[in-house]
Amino acid sequence: MYVGVDYYPEHWERKRWDIDAALMKKAGFNVVRLAEFAWINMEPREQQFEFGWLDEALEILGKNGISAILGTPTAVMPAWVAKKYPETLLLQKDGTRIAWGVRKNNCFSSETYRLLSKKITRAMAEHFSGNPNVIGWQTDNEFGSPSCLCDSCRLEFHAWLEKRYGDIGSLNKAWGNHFWGHLFSDWSEIPIPVDQGVHNPGACLDWKRFNSWLNVRFQKEQLDILRVLCPDHFVTHNFMGLFKDLDYYDLAEDLDFVSWDNYPCWGKPEVRFDASFAADVMRGLKKKNFWIMEQTAGPGGWGAFGRNPHPGEIRNISYQQLAHGADGQIWFRWRTCTAGREQYWHGLLGHDGRPLRRYDEAALTAREYHRLEKEIKDTTVVADVAVIYDYESIWALDIQAGYGGNTFQNAVKRYYNALFRSGTNVDMIRPSDDFSRYKIVIAADLNILEDDVADRLNEFVRKGGILLADCRTGVKDISGLCHARTLPGKLSESLGIEIEEYESIPDDMHFDISGTGGISGSFTSVSYADWVKPLGAKPLAGYRQWHMEKFSAVTRNRYGKGSGWYVGTVVKEEGFYDQLIKNLLDEAGLKQSIIPPAGVEVSIRRGKKKIAFIINHTEEVKTVAVPSGKLELLSGKKTRKKLELGRYGVAVLKL
Ligand code: GLA
Ligand code: ZN
């Protein structure tokens, strides 16, 4: 198993490199990521390549048993690029080029920049392909810059649209350009929809798709070179978890595996629902295990820095990712830099370079990982519950939320967090995926719903599946036009309901809802309410407000061999979602072998063996009921009926 750090030898004197490598080795580290911002060090002048320094660093690391992942360095263009080729700099909304001097400053459609990117990638690939200490590559760094508004990007947008729609009439139809007299007669008339809040939603959606495609193409150009010249190396990219601007499924497609950058330690210590959610999204991109390419090693910040991970937290953060399928883990960064914008982004070592508490904790974790390696080999998370995670709907809702505060991720989190609390693993899947291998599929806020997906969801229920949908699902088609149907459109079939009207609930108002069977207790409906009319469905919760009395808040419909559940509002209390999820899990016959108390997470990796990770996300001691007589792999002891976990404690049970 690869465990290590992000390392910047170019930031330190040569004489320190041996000390660093020896300290890494001592910690049990066997991998580093290198050079992703070192373009200037490798190509100080155009077409003059200097790799000697990196060869030397690789050799020192290699002697200490440390392999390397090299970054293609295109996230920071050298100053000479900006000076010589100003058209490679991103054009901003105000019509000026971005000031060089940060990073991610480039235009992705610039022919020049693409050529320079291919040249440095090729030079690196040629030079390092035979180096025994190099095992793989990271493309660029955290794709997802703001979009560039230059003429080259606009022309490429036109070409992209022409390819997608064929003729201008089809584009007019897809975007609904009869509205406000926006019909085009020629591609060249089409502007960049600069303001996503007021431009035509269809145009905005395609602009997002186009920008995503530009990044994917840029990466593909590097990949094509690496595949030919370095066939023995893997290629990955460091994704940003819940980042929304790119279609991560597309970006992941040509990579060997996904990696991601996990910085969950910001505010007060709390249960890391989002880091778990992001991990599942990352595993879902290629339906396989992933790596962590950067992980919190200390307080971080570009101006003011945040909280120091409390004792045990560095290890806790790492185990959560291992539990969700991280097969390689790298801390960002090795030593805190004394210069530049990230002087306060702390690494395992401080500015002084001494191996202290954070180093010790990472070393402990690394050593434990090496001991666990053979037990977790060939295991991954296998889930019976899937949540549809769809970038088209993410974008459609960012362009038009429907009701205030509505985002796709917020909607998914309502259900995801309840599943987390119940100790249930979840897969994130695409709308085009096969639903039949799951017992429960959740389509929360799936704003863009194509007919064939709706048909397949209906079929999934007919054949015995449990579908849970909620508000604003199925509103739009793939172009971002509202379906000309009564909601929930085609899903009426499996959900057994009809929604003729709906409304936002202003922040200073709420509705009261209470269970009418199936759901018990009273809850608060906020933000939004569908006026749900059950057709064949059974109401499980209803409203108390006079104008809502005849409508349902929650329904369940028997359809074929399965059932379709619908939640037509946002509920303030978490307890509501816990109850709802419990109902679904009971109906699906899904029983968890370990039920976590509040603040504790359970995630299971399966292969030939079943390995349960039990993680305490709190600073209190927690007692967890577990099956007795099981081997706890970290202590080597057999379990009794109860297991005690200290602050941020972790247990790994072989079930
Ligand atoms: C990102 C980048 C790193 C570093 C960290 C901390 O994850 O990939 O280069 O900048 O953030 O800011
Ligand atoms: Zn551009």
Which SSEs are present, and which pair or pack?
Elements: E1 2-6, H1 14-27, E2 31-34, H2 39-42, H3 52-63, E3 67-71, H4 79-84, H5 111-128, E4 134-138, H6 151-165, H7 168-175, H8 201-229, E5 234-236, E6 238-239, H9 248-253, E7 259-262, H10 273-286, E8 290-295, H11 313-324, E9 326-331, H12 357-376, E10 380-381, E11 385-388, H13 391-399, H14 408-421, E12 426-429, E13 440-443, H15 451-462, E14 466-470, H16 492-495, E15 497-504, E16 511-515, E17 522-534, E18 538-543, E19 552-559, E20 562-567, E21 569-571, H17 574-588, E22 600-606, E23 610-616, E24 622-625, E25 631-632, E26 637-638, E27 642-645, E28 650-654
Parallel strand pairs: 1-2, 1-9, 2-3, 3-4, 4-5, 6-7, 7-8, 8-9, 11-12, 11-13, 13-14, 14-20
Antiparallel strand pairs: 10-22, 15-17, 16-17, 16-18, 17-21, 18-19, 19-20, 22-23, 23-28, 24-27, 25-26, 25-28
The structure holds alpha-D-galactopyranose and zinc ion.
Describe this structure in words.
The chain is an alpha/beta fold. The chain is built from 17 helices and 28 strands. The chain is globular, with a radius of gyration of 26 Å. The strands form 4 sheets. Strands 11, 12, 13, 14, 15, 16, 17, 18, 19, 20 and 21 form an 11-stranded mixed β-sheet that branches. Strands 5-4-3-2-1-9-8-7-6 form a 9-stranded parallel β-sheet, covered by helices on one side. The chain has a 6-stranded antiparallel β-sheet with strand order 10-22-23-28-25-26, with helices on one face. Helix 8 (201-229) runs antiparallel to helix 13, helix 10 packs across helix 14 (408-421) and helix 14 (408-421) crosses helix 17 (574-588). The chain has 4 domains: 2-148 and 192-377, Glycosidases (TIM Barrel), CATH 3.20.20.80; 152-189, no CATH class; 385-588, Rossmann fold, CATH 3.40.50; 600-654, Golgi alpha-mannosidase II (Immunoglobulin-like), CATH 2.60.40.1180. Alpha-D-galactopyranose binds at residues 141-142, 238, 261, 294, 300, 332, 342, 345.
